[in-house]
Amino acid sequence: MHADRHLRDLYTVEQVRALDRRAIDDLGISGFELMNRAATATFTFLCRQWPQARRLVVFCGPGNNGGDGYLLANLAYAANLAVEVVELSDAARGDAALARDTWLRNAGTTHRWHQDALLPQADVYVDALYGTGLNRALEPAAGALIERINASGVPILALDVPSGLNADTGHCPGIAMRAQATVSFIAAKRGLYTGQAATKTGTLFIDTLGLPDILWQGMPADAALLDAMHLGPRSRDAHKGDSGHVLAIGGDHGTAGAIRLCGEAALRGGAGLVSVATRAENLIALNSARPELMAHGVHGPQELQPLLSRATVLAVGPGLGQGAWGHALWLTALDSGKPLVLDADGLNLLAHEQRRFTTPVVLTPHPGEAARLLEKSNAEVQMDRFAAARELAQRYGAVVVLKGSGSLIAHPDGRLDVCTWGNPGMGSGGMGDLLTGIIAALMAQGCSAWDAARIGVGLHARAGDVAARKGERGLLASDLLEPLRLLGNGIEHD
């Protein structure tokens, strides 16, 4: 069986090193042969991606990543392309030294990089400077070279990982290469799909180097890429009571829009009934804008109780505020023991009054909210999003959606999925309110917290991508509602 079936599985750098070691020790494939396979895969991709390219410059470091680069240069030279190799040093070791010798025997020359040198002209630059082992900021000379390459305007192809990007976490501790495409080898490294990775990898292609499926046996993936999912068709005799009742709680003074977006997303996400508990002053606007929402003015916990008793799932936080009104409703909602989705000020209140949940709960923090929940800095959260998401899930006993580029969905048992959809246009007000309503609607229809979060994050991000076809700048949260309905029914938007 071919190993390509593992392409949705994500691995840590340590796990990929172990797979590499297995290929060498257990399958008898030499490290130099693996390097040749990597070079061949990359050259094939390069010819397909840039068929008109006739001049290449390959920038090589002293490690195995540089070894891949020397052998790629050798293949391009044999194909009659004009090739130059620029190296940071001549201190290649092991298989990388063999690769360097192969290049020198055939082409006979390399150029040592000096900061006052001009970059050679090329149709494509190839980044073979640093691989997956780098977890620190680059030294100044390498950083200066990468800055020059990034500013050149020449397309960049990265081997395995763009130099300077941590392949384990998606964090860049310093300057990093901004590639137009990246070919990564053996297995998908988890850090290439979240955090800062989207600005560095460009088009990402994984090549398993023809390795057999047996290599992966006994090596469980650390995480997985999210699948495109939706609920199946409803029974022909279904009625509104079969699809659950979402109660959306929030909308303090001046934030009626937040709770309306949450409620409307719950409707478009398929909930049979959606009630809204909000400030009385919001009722006229909500009823006129979306009469399908059952809006109720509540002054405090006593008026919330009868609404709680009828609800299947709670969506708590959009526009809630952290004042006395919001805190009282938040506390009453959490004490009800109902399944719930917690966002925005619902999370900020939780950061002040922490508790571990025993009922189905989904938390949907952005990095700033996650930092408050973990009592850390935003930078610490972004430095290792995987660790932060898992720590949140374990600490609070909840499924956690850590939002951002490459949103993560973490289960308290350690499972984790990564969403590869979404776009910068979704960085606007109200997007999180939509996600809260969508996930709550899916839970109301019978999904577990884990499945609701996974399906909901995927639908939300994919709807955002459809809406962004008209342009990312100026994208509104409400623009997602029409494609959300289609995608939620398994209808691909034209």
UniProtKB/TrEMBL annotation:
Keywords: ATP-binding, Isomerase, Lyase, Metal-binding, Multifunctional enzyme, NAD, NADP, Nucleotide-binding, Potassium. InterPro entries: CARKD (IPR000631), Nnr (IPR030677), Ribokinase-like (IPR029056), YjeF_N_dom (IPR004443), YjeF_N_dom_sf (IPR036652). Its EC number is 4.2.1.136, 5.1.99.6. It comes from the Bacteria. The keyword NAD applies. (6S)-NADPHX binds at residues 64-68, 131-137, 160, 258, 319, 366, 433. Residues 16-217 form the YjeF N-terminal domain. It holds the Pfam family YjeF_N. Residues 223-491 form the YjeF C-terminal domain. AMP binds at residues 403-407, 432. Homotetramer. In the N-terminal section; belongs to the NnrE/AIBP family. Catalyzes the epimerization of the S- and R-forms of NAD(P)HX, a damaged form of NAD(P)H that is a result of enzymatic or heat-dependent hydration. This is a prerequisite for the S-specific NAD(P)H-hydrate dehydratase to allow the repair of both epimers of NAD(P)HX. This is Bifunctional NAD(P)H-hydrate repair enzyme. It comes from Dyella acidisoli. The lineage of its organism: Bacteria, Pseudomonadati, Pseudomonadota, Gammaproteobacteria, Lysobacterales.
